[in-house]
Amino acid sequence: YLLLLLLFPALFNLYASLHDWWIGRSPVFVGAKNFVTLVHDSRFINDVIVTFKFVVVAVSIEVGLGFLLALAATRITKGAQVYRVLFIFPVMVAPIAAGYMWRMLLHADYGVIPALLEKLGFPRVEIISNPKLAFWGIILIDVWQWMPFVFLVTYAGLTALPKEPYEAALVDGASSWQIFRHITLPLISPILLTVTLLRFVEAFKVFDIIYITTGGGPGIMTESLSLYVYIQGLKFFNLGYAGCIAWVFFLIVMVITTIYIMRLRREMKL
Questions:
Q1: pTM to 2 decimals?
Q2: Which of 14, 34, 218, 265 is in Cβ range 3.0-4.6 Å of 244 for a Cys bridge?
Q3: Long-range contacts of range 35-42, CB-CB < 8 Å, 24 or more positions apart?
Q4: pLDDT for 215-269, tens place per residue?
């Protein structure tokens, strides 16, 4: 059953990528022609850059901010349960719903955020259609939705750390910074590396919020690889080229993920 769900779509995409295949026409075998075309496709190169930039920026902010908030939450004694529950809400929102909600919030005419910025003295701008701000608007939405996931995982890890090393360090007169650097960070690093990997893989597949908010615009400035596969396959009906993009996309993520997992294993052994 699992092989049917996982292997068949992959093999079908591989078969499609080796053919000139449009919906409504019979597939014609062309070998590696689609892959050669892809190498010279400036739109594909742009989408690779946009996707990598999105992954690096979004995941870095989410992991860093989520970890800092988790550290702060461990010091809260009153209302900690309410604090944790509030952080779950963004994760529970479907990405499509989150995209529509933030498109309304960021709208230049009736959006709450541009209105607040105007009250603070900034000009009222259309964030999601502004060439300089659209990408950061997408980052804002992704951080809002997935930073709480990092927070919850790292908070659970911090609360589960053994108390004995901390008690010994306090007896030895270690400072707060020394305790964090030599005890907390080494103990929590496997969890941080794991949650970074999970967010890394998910961020590479970003589609929903971009499709709903910017549609890849202005122009193709916020277009991701997932969105490009959708456009080629389900808007242009070019199944062969869409399958080619999907396979190259899969190989890129697989190579990077494999390298990261190898590093993760070395870190955990240390």
A1: 0.90
A2: 34
A3: 35/244, 35/248, 37/241, 37/244, 38/241, 38/244, 38/245, 38/248
A4: 998 889 999 999 999 999 999 999 999 999 999 999 999 998 888 888 777 766 6
Single-letter residue type at 4: L
Tokens 């701000």 found at: 133
Dihedral sign, Cα of residue 14, residue 96, residue 90, residue 63:
positive
- CB pairs under 8 A, 24+ apart, for 247-256? 247/13, 247/14, 247/17, 248/35, 248/38, 249/225, 250/10, 252/48, 253/201, 253/204, 256/200
pLDDT in tens, 18-68: 999 998 888 899 989 999 999 999 999 999 999 999 999 999 999 999 999
40 phi and psi angles, rounded to 5 deg: -100, 10
